[in-house]
Amino acid sequence: MNAEEFEALVVEELDRLPDDMVDGLDNVIFVVEDRPEDGSLDLLGLYDGFALTERDRYGMGELPDRIIVYREPHLAQTETTEQLRDEVHTTLVHEIAHFYGIDDAQLHELGWA
């Protein structure tokens, strides 16, 4: 799947998330990149920013936080479009949870990590 098709799939999955999950996102952008900087295929996504629980240190004029979804790792770990959609959905929920201050241990308990 090329970059444009993958980005469209990410947008579709983002649109399918519950409104109450995405309505609270403030100063956050979604980015699709081919791979993490280290070139690995292990990392599916990344939240780069200050969690809502840490926004007391957040000042005026901050650059937007980023939720990055990596295309090539997703493609390497899935075989069908349906599996890809499921994995992108899980990655989006996982990274949005980090925005809300939910750590990996809590995500494991909830089944999202």
Automatic annotation (TrEMBL):
Stored Pfam families: Zincin_1 (PF06262)
Record-given protein name: Metallopeptidase family protein
Alphabetized SUPFAM superfamilies for the sequence: Metalloproteases ('zincins'), catalytic domain
Record organism: Candidatus Microbacterium stercoravium
InterPro entries to which the protein is assigned, alphabetical: Zincin_1, Zincin_1_sf
